[in-house]
Description:
Layout: H1 15-23, H2 25-41, E1 73-78, E2 81-88, E3 91-102, E4 105-116, H3 117-125, H4 127-135, E5 140-145, E6 150-157, E7 160-171, E8 174-184, H5 186-205
Antiparallel strand pairs: 1-2, 2-3, 3-4, 5-6, 6-7, 7-8
Helix pairs in contact: 3-5
Amino acid sequence: xxxxxxxxxxxxxxxxxxxxxxxxxxxxxxxxxxxxxxxxxxxxxxxxxxxxxxxxxxxxxxxxxxxxxxxxxxxxxxxxxxxxxxxxxxxxxxxxxxxxxxxxxxxxxxxxxxxxxxxxxxxxxxxxxxxxxxxxxxxxxxxxxxxxxxxxxxxxxxxxxxxxxxxxxxxxxxxxxxxxxxxxxxxxxxxxxxxxxxxxxxxxxx
Length: 206
């Protein structure tokens, strides 16, 4: 207009929304192309249908969680982070962990925390308080004790809340964060929070 570019219709994305879009660009692209290729190869008398795209596009899926008789359950928090209920040495456990790709396979990384049934029950019970802390951007590293050295809390990073599931150690009378643990951004926590009841029910069924 009048020799200048003027903004029209569009949308603004926050960092979490942009990250989700970036993670799924390839999936969306494949979904757009799939109907055309399917109709070209399908008989004219039969309707074509594209296969449902996976949330992570061409990213290799992590190895199937262990558990007898399909007893394991996994929730995808992001393209490389998962919450998994599975049997470990015959005991039901819940793992919230980040994976990495190597040689075409997704392998469990160091970032994460594996919880016993009792520890996970504490997390389920603290859900409402953690949700509130995230919404209010409260800085509290110890909202609930999963054990004597493991806490769930919310801490700020660059002004944004992160839900911390972490093991701590004591030094000079202070509790300091250890290497075992993982921090979830609001989107990842929201997915986990909304699935806590389902994971808990599955855990009880093992």
